[in-house]
Amino acid sequence: MSDKVLLDYGSGGRASQRLISDLFLKYLGNDELDRLNDAAVLNLSGRIAMSTDSFTVDPIFFPGGDIGSLAVHGTVNDVAMMGAVPRYITCGYIIEEGLPMADLERIVQSMGEAARHAGVKVVTGDTKVVPKGACDKIFINTTGIGEIIADPTPSGDAARVGDAVLVSGTMGDHGLTVLGTREGLDFEAKVQSDSAALNHLLVKLVRELPEVHVLRDPTRGGLATTLNEITKSSNVCCELTETSIPVRPEVKGGCSILGLDPLYLANEGKFICILPGEYADKALEIMRADPLGQDACRIGTMTDANPGKVVLVTQLGGKRLLGMLEGEQLPRIC
Amino acid sequence: MSDKVLLDYGSGGRASQRLISDLFLKYLGNDELDRLNDAAVLNLSGRIAMSTDSFTVDPIFFPGGDIGSLAVHGTVNDVAMMGAVPRYITCGYIIEEGLPMADLERIVQSMGEAARHAGVKVVTGDTKVVPKGACDKIFINTTGIGEIIADPTPSGDAARVGDAVLVSGTMGDHGLTVLGTREGLDFEAKVQSDSAALNHLLVKLVRELPEVHVLRDPTRGGLATTLNEITKSSNVCCELTETSIPVRPEVKGGCSILGLDPLYLANEGKFICILPGEYADKALEIMRADPLGQDACRIGTMTDANPGKVVLVTQLGGKRLLGMLEGEQLPRIC
Questions:
Q1: In the predicted structure, residue A189 carries a pLDDT above the cut 70
Q2: Is A1 in CB contact (< 8 Å) with chain B?
Q3: Distance from B334 to chain A by nearest Cα, in Å?
Q4: Where are the domains of chain A?
Q5: Closest approach of chain B CAs to the CA of A246, in angstroms?
Q6: Residue B318 Cα distances to A145, B79, B312, B323, angstroms
Q7: How many CB pairs under 8 A join A and B?
Q8: How far apart are CA A309 and CA B33, in angstroms?
Q9: Looking at the domain that runs over B163-321, which CATH code has it been given?
Q10: Which CATH number is associated with domain B7-148?
């Protein structure tokens, strides 16, 4: 194969087939993908969760991950947030002509490792190569499906007054890392993306605590935007204690230099868990027993004070409204 | 909303939500999509077919269709080729900052109409907006799932010696139309894309004729490339009669001007059906009763002459090998 991706590799002809067998099957292959039919044949039953996400992150490699692993984590997490066991994912690659083959190989290899680690199979895919300039390096879509084990299914409209609001760890790591890498900023202390597959931890959580009301990953728009969506859907008020929200000192530092708020920065390996207050300690215990939830903590409570709003009780005891992100804080963050 | 797509619309914040509710839900809305959860919850059972495709067609509007309808047809057809009833699709939009909002609206509306016509629901989606220059106008990924009703499932490796090879209509219409529109060519007679959802016809076919061995849509690489894949997977020889392959005179004319072979041009509303010779007439009868199969005909037979090869018996009685497309004949055709 050439050391750069050529238009030929997206033709559907012989060159495409070489790329698929020599590279995609090498790292992603399994019984179903190897068949190379137009569609995969899967066995599934019951209630199915299905989610899709396109990844356009810039840069495509960043501390803690790359577009290949991120594309697995993002979709696996969205499926798992429904209280489901992610089983299968598809991948659709759009590649710019001229991308170094070594970069593509590194991305596909990383996708394969992330999928194995998450316990999902890549069962079917599609590769398009577009002429130089028609896309920036590489975009990846993944779509995932899984079997729902939680009953009732956690949902953004299921938060109730009295519920505890927990997060599984520190906020803002992914967003600040991607921005810092893109802009070539050298922060004092190194930050890295939290990109990770949360499904094993989430499955444990919903198996042991069917009382969970809401599970959500605060990706684009961050914690503040995601909580705003939940309070609006559920018509409750979220009261947060500022000092209890975990943010790494190096992320705080980077944000203050750049004028960013970590509560609006994307996370790719964290989740919000909302459940009746009496189960909060049990949930934290389960979360903290997993390396991906070791910094889990309770950050607030759902009340009936200002339905549809998120209120932050600041360090000094004041209250301020935490609005929804209006426009774009950071494009191409995932 | 602005008359152009702004970066803000991909932020995950308030501007994103306006775009989703005012535009996407308006044309694609249904019970499941309206919930706006991170993943859709679906009821499915048994053997499931799943397929994914990214669409990067240039131009985004062409005679007979656009990227919105094409994105539905392409995926619905891939699912249906497994002998499945397509049920649900996801859509992932990657939009270039500055795309006229009217273009986006026309595309989403067209996607909605195509989905309704095909009888599938768009159950979940994702929208990314990338800065100007990071992608060319708009790319759409769709992933579809459906319930398999054919037993055994049609498969590319199931062709047998003695099988008849049928096509559902004329070859090359889509490829020539897209190329002609992109290059601003004005052919003598107007050609238009055959982009269409074949699932209703295919479901009828596999219900009445469970004996079907292979169903495939000859998209990228065209009839010749798809038949090469099948003969290699099934280890049989496909002997085609050149004069029996339906090609519109205007497509023949356009191809001869441009030096293209219609047997290698993409189709988006046609399928190849391979089944035991004794069922060929019945299959043609079913196909011809449907407007999408009215030009269906038998074009050849599977033999044991040259396993893995496609042989064309020319108009003059000569035989020539029809190889697989090597590289890229036409980029961004779908």
A1: no
A2: no
A3: 9
A4: 7-148, 163-321
A5: 22
A6: 51, 37, 8, 16
A7: 274
A8: 24
A9: 3.90.650.10
A10: 3.30.1330.10
